[in-house]
Every structure is written in C-alpha cells, then in structure tokens.
Fold these 2 entries.
Entry 1:
Amino acid sequence: MRLADLPGRWRQEAATIRQRYADDRLAALCEALADDLERALKDADEQLLTPAQAAADPEILWDSADHIALQVRTGKITNHGRRHRPLVRRGDLPRKPAAKPVEPSAEDADAPPLDEFTRRAIARRS
C-alpha cells in the first residue's frame, strides 16, 4: 500500500466505525487524521527537488538523475529552478505503481507445503 492510499482507507474505516459501532467521535478522529495526511501529502508534492534528489526517492519511477534532467531540458517536466540548476516539483514526477498483493492461484492451493520440498523430505520419498 502506498502512502497516498491511506487517507481514503482511513475514511472507509471511519465509515465502518460509524456504521458498526455508532462511534461518531472515533470516526471523526479518523477523518481528521485523513485530512491531515492529505494536506501533508499535498505539501510534499509541492516540494522542489534536484534531479539527484528526485532519483533517490523510492516512489519516483525514474531512477536516473540524468533521465530526469533530460525530461526537464526537453520540456516534458517544468523546471522550477534556473538554467543549469534544475529543480522539479515532486508532484510532477511519475510515481511507481503500487504493488498488488499476490493472490494464490488454484494450483497453489493444491500444491504441497514448502517443507515437503526439503532435501530430507525428498530423500525420504525416494
């Protein structure tokens, strides 16, 4: 799960708390925390980074400062700095997609447990 997904999840939790437990105070707290996180994420998107700083960010898609600088030079990303000293807005950079949880397939459900594939278990079967 990415950090940007948390405000929506917290709002869903607030709705669940309100519906299941009729606890408006706790639900309001969850919503207030979601709002705070959302504001903090917007502020982070406004942060200006050098291409090297942007490339070091684990959420940024491109891992090369040279590639980011090339995107600035070609005008694909707005330069918020000076010429030869580019600064890019974090929110302008593409993010890596969130990793999807791996669902076990039907074949995996029928597969024997991993401990059955140890050398000792294989030797016993032979």
Entry 2:
Amino acid sequence: MILDPENVPHIGLSESDVVEFKEQWTASALKELCAFANTKGGVMYVGVRNDGSIVGTAVDDAQQLLIANHCDTKLHITPVIEVDRHVGRAVLVITVRPSAHLVRLDGRYYKRVGTASIEMAEDEMASRLMRQADRTWDAFAAPATLENDIDAAAVRAFVRDAHGREHPRVPLSIRESDPIDVILRNLDLLTADGRPTYAAVLLFGRNPQQWIRSAMIRMAYFRSINDFTAYPDCTGTLFEQLDMALRHIESANPPTFSFSQDSIQRQEHPQYPLVAIREALINALVHRDYMRGGSDIEVKMFPDRLVISNPGGLFPGMTLSELRQTPHRSERRNPLIASTCFLVYLVERYGTGTTRIVSECTAAGLPEPEFIADAYNFQITFWKSPIPLTERQRRTVEWVKEHSRITNAQYQKQFAVSRATATRELEELTELKVFRKVGSTGRGVYYVLDTEPV
C-alpha cells in the first residue's frame, strides 16, 4: 500500500474511463454510474478523494440500501455493492456492468470519456436507441412523397441496369414495367404504410438534399494551406454524387503519359488507381453516418496525397487491422442502401472492399493507403508513388492482376528478356513490396501481388 505525505492510505489506483472516486455518496454520483452503464462499465470507490487517498465512508446496511434504491429508481440498474477495508478505513466499491440498453438519468443520457462523464450528443443517442430497437436510419420514413419527390425514371433505369448485368442480382420478380410503388416495395424502400424511406430518397430522390442536408461530398485541391481550389459540392442521389466526385478527382489529378520502347502509342497512367478511389468513395457514401447533421463527406487533394473522410467511425469491436484481412466482418450502418447498391455491384457483402483498395494500390506500385478511425469519423489517405514504376514493371503488374501469378520463365517469354534481366526486375518489384516471392529456388518459384494470399 502506498502512503501519501500525510500517512493517509492510498487506494493504489487513478481515476480513468472505468474508475471514479467519491469522498461520500450523493445523488450526483448517479451521473457517473449512468455513464459507466452506457460505455464500458466501471467501478466507483466511495470514501476516496480525487487523488486516491482513502478517507472512508459509511458502509452500513442502511447506506448500501440507499444507494441500491437510488440506482433502481433513477437508473433502473442493479450494481454490485461491496465493502473494502484499508487500515481501519472502509470504502464502498460500486461495480456497474455495461448495459445492453441505454440508461438515462432524469431524461438525459451520459457516457464516459476519459475521467469525465458527459452528456451524449443527440445524434449519438438517437443512433444507439435505433440500434437498441433493431432499426436503422435508412429504414425510417422521410418527410417526402412518392409522387413528388421520387424520380420514377431513375428507379426504372436502376432496375434496367440491374437486370442487364452478366449475372443479375436483382430478383426476376422486380420488373422495370411495374408501378413505382411496387418496385420500391420489392426493394424494401417503402415503409409499411407506403411512404418513401430515407434510403429511397437518397438513392432515387429528385432532390435528396432537401431532406438530408448533409448528404453531399465537399472537395478541394490544396496546393498549400492558403492556396486551394474548391470544387462544386457533389449533390444529388448517391449515384450522382459518386460520378461527380470521380470527375473532380480526375480533373485535379490528370493522368501522366509515357511511350514504350516498342510502340509509338502513348501510354496513360492514372496518378491514383481509380478502382481503389471509387471503392473508397462508395464505402463513404454507403456506410457514413447520415444522422450527423452538418457533417459531410470530405475529399481533400494535395500534391502528394488524397484524403477521403466521412462521419461515422468503426463499429464496436472492429479494429483497423481487421480491415486489411480478407475477408473481414461486413457491418452495415445503412443496410437498405447497402442492399440496393449490392444489386448493381457497387458493394459486396463479404468485407472485401478495404482489402481490394489495398490490393489495387499495391498493384499500381503505390504505398498502402492509411486508415484512421475514431468513434465519430473514418478516414483513408491515398499516397502517390515515391518511386515510379517503369513501363515494363507496370505491364508486369497488369499481367499478374489478370493471371494471379508469374514465374521467371513466363516473364522472359512475355517481355522477351534474358533470365538475368527477368530475375533482377522481379526482385526489384519484390523489394518495392509490389510482389511477394513464393518459394525459394527452382521452377516452383513464382510471384504474386503482395496483398494476395499464397
């Protein structure tokens, strides 16, 4: 046991996101217990000063009954209350487990952030209450009408596009000639009483921003902090926002060109792999938190990088490292939007989007993108290549993307080079972490993209 300068016993702990000290019990302590229940749970020590020194408190049955009654009537929770004695001083230890349901105190909801218990923002509270009720934002009725606010032509074009795919995912029971309300109901985009959901408005609305003001992408190119070009906001439906954002990115980052040794044809090289950029934008549009009023998707472009950020962090329990695993858990913040986009191959259901982004960047000879996330936002940064690939290296990468692997003999034949040249250039691509070498010696050696499993 640690003694402070006054020889007062010390609890041996510090306040944290799961530890709280109180000199004595008062009704105000319920706020901390409420916050514990709504976050990760925690332990309150009554009879301990903020610095951890033990002063002791009443621990008789009447005091414990008073605390239990307060928790029951005010918070509707049942904590574990125990007595801990330190050198003649008694401390009440109140343990609260994380609650499966939101706990409120006098009509307010609190959460634990560090050593503070703060009131939840309205959007976070609403989001958690909807999850508690097993409902999502995109399934609620929007203040819009089917007749005036839904673009019937866009709905029919979507069905036509979905049926025109090589392997259609849209059920044959959904027909382009059906009435619009029938199509939307079969896509689960109408409420039980026939009103358009927020998903329907965002996907097929004539003016989605009338009802969802933050549903847009803001974009700018920064040459320096004070020298930047702002692009027009990307608005309209989810599909229109995606198309506009890709055009802005291509305009701000025009491709570079080169000529191969054996051809007079000009070769075009995008500065970023457009497949990866498109995937990242789709993820942002489909999985962002639309309840965060005033928070848009942002695309910031710089001479050396491109940053896409959107409101809505990772789901509880998911980690950034998990995003690089193939496949990983597929969590959907807006399941109706995701399901509709799945029908036209914009998203998958198997947690492959982020790994595809990494693979496309690596295959293009670029550094792996950087993922950053907290409780409220998700951000991905694409970097331009510090070491540009030669034309033959680019062609090699494209060949491997098509054929999954390449051997030394295949390299010699494909590019008409000697064995020594093939060995040297394949090793260079391995050192750049574009390829991974499988095997050690002999004919069994081959090379795959660095993010591909063996």
